[in-house]
Amino acid sequence: MTPASRCAETVPFNVYSKATEEIGRLMSNFARTPFVLDGAEYGSIEGFYVSLLFLDPEERRKLGRMYGFVVKQMGKKSRLKTTCYDGEWFDLGSDAHVALIKRAIRAKLEAHPEIAREFVATAPRPIVHETGFRDLPDAEFPAPVFCRILGELREEFAAVDVFCVHGSCRIRSGLSGR
């Protein structure tokens, strides 16, 4: 390995909607990357996340299909500290909440194997979420937790076969059960 390639491995991989790298933008929660989780359709991870901040089923469906900064802004209207998903109640920021978000990001990557492949290729670079703003002190899903689960998912997807032929990518063995 050359000194230049060793240095490249230490350059942080920034997952942010305004990242300089396209894969950083695609891995952000704001990216329009539709996926299905437990039979429901979502337009982005942010849409999924914000949908959990409301209990009304119609509001959840509407928010869940959204993407981008606008859905984040809509989430600021919520004052929930506890939510329900699939009949289970949990506190926002709890282990159950974080595990659910991880399942959603996994579903996103399974729905977009080409993104999964590019994401895996960012290893071994450290994952960061540098937006220019600090997390709020009471953030339910702070940047270090987000980066930790992204790192875990990157390792998981590195262990499966993501292959591309003529621009069409597939994952040979799904991870939904993990």
Written description of the protein model:
The chain is globular. The protein contains eight helices and eight strands; from the N terminus they run αβαββαααββααβαββ. Helix 3 packs parallel to helix 5 and helix 7 (113-120) crosses helix 8 (143-158). The chain has a single domain (3-171), classed as Orthogonal Bundle (Tetracycline Repressor, domain 2). The chain is an alpha+beta fold and 178 residues long. The strands form four sheets. Strands 1-6 form a two-stranded parallel sheet. A two-stranded antiparallel ribbon has the order 2-3. The protein has helices at 3-8, 22-26, 45-51, 57-64, 69-75, 95-111, 113-120, 143-158, and strands spanning 13-14, 35-37, 40-42, 82-85, 88-91, 127-128, 162-165, 168-171.
List keywords for this structure.
single chain, 178 residues, alpha+beta, Tetracycline Repressor, domain 2, two-stranded parallel sheet, two-stranded antiparallel ribbon, 8 helices, 8 strands, 42% helix, disordered C terminus
